Amino acid sequence: MIYVAICDDESHMLDQMHRIISNTFSSNQIECELSCFQSGAEMLKTHRLNAFDIIFLDILMPDYNGFDVAKKVRSISDKTLLLFVTSQDELVYDSFDYHPFYFLRKGDESTFTQSLSDTVRKIIDFMKRNEMISIKLNSGETRTICLQDILFLSSNRNMVHYHLISGDYIPVREQLSDSDSRLQTYGFLRIHKQYIVNMNKILKLDSSRDASILLPPNVILPIGRKYREQALLLYREFLRRIT
Description:
2 domains; 5-stranded antiparallel sheet
């Protein structure tokens, strides 16, 4: 469950944002609990008791302004994702002191609806990248790793190696097709009968005749002919979501 706060002194904005955020999380099969506040002080009372994962915060409010609220939020939890909402673009530079995840500009309803929906999808992608997964080792033990630490997977017969950004790898007895089924919703892409890559780590995709993927620090993996068309399509869709 993800806990989300929306703080804005205008009731029609709260209603609009609640509807958009709720629908976007729901359409991505993610459970969230939304709480709406018209006062920064009231939102902070709840946040102190049980910190929100995400806060959408209007900057211009009558009791506390959004920056005052953000400062107190950061003193309680530095992991909360802060998103500022305002009609005044010039305030965006002042918001950087509070390490916001994003800055949303109020505008006409259609434009704002699209912008907010896109932003929620960016949040979903960000949270998925930082999730933890459990891998059963050949010894029978279980190891938990962050998805963000995985660079790519390679297979050799019935063994899969999880290659990490540290340069280490974890050997696991499983089929690459099973790994693909488990990881594809987290931004991983099958590019070859032997390789799955973390799309968040791709430095360059070469779509020429000898198609390949460049990963850090200087890892080059081929894109199999069988996988090329689908891989290019999925990677383009991924880039559209995160930019």
